[in-house]
Amino acid sequence: MAYARSLLPAQDAPVVDAMLALCGATAGLYDAVLYATDTFDPHQPGDALRARVAGQQAGIDAVLRETAAQAGITLIDIPRGLATPDRVRWVSEYLAESGVLPH
């Protein structure tokens, strides 16, 4: 949504608005929406598209947060700088403590 809202031309606004309405209509179906705010190296192997939007990551983050708020979604920020195994552990512990996953 955030990339669509930021990068698509103005004539696509009705489609983006419809996507936002769908997000709002389905927001209550989720137990939790976790969000990783880390920015990543735009030259990672296997991700040819990342370099195209690397300079826009901070702006997209702001749009994503605004879009989530408009859709009634509360984002749960995953701590920055965690290695992947630590991130998975943090998410699992958070969801277990929140009652979303069994202990």
Structural class: mainly alpha
Distance between the termini: 33 Å
Q: Outline, from the CA principal axes?
A: flat
Q: Give the beta-strand count.
A: 2
User: Count of helical segments?
Assistant: 5
User: Strands of the biggest beta sheet: in what spatial order?
Assistant: 1-2
Summed over residues and divided by their number, the pLDDT gives a mean of 84
**Share of helix, binned:** 40-55%
Q: Could you give the order of the helices and strands?
A: HHEHHEH
Integer-rounded radius of gyration: 16 Å
Sheet of most strands: 2 strands, parallel
- The residue ranges in which pLDDT falls below 50 over 5 or more consecutive positions are none
Strand content: 5-15%
Overall description:
By secondary structure, this protein is mainly α. The protein has one domain. The chain has helices at residues 2-7, 13-26, 50-53, 57-70, 84-97, and strands at 33-36, 75-78. It has a two-stranded parallel sheet.
Quick summary of this structure?
This protein is mainly alpha-helical and 103 residues long.
Fill in the keyword field for this structure.
flat, mainly alpha, 103 residues
Could you outline the blueprint of secondary structure elements for this entry?
Blueprint: H1 2-7, H2 13-26, E1 33-36, H3 50-53, H4 57-70, E2 75-78, H5 84-97
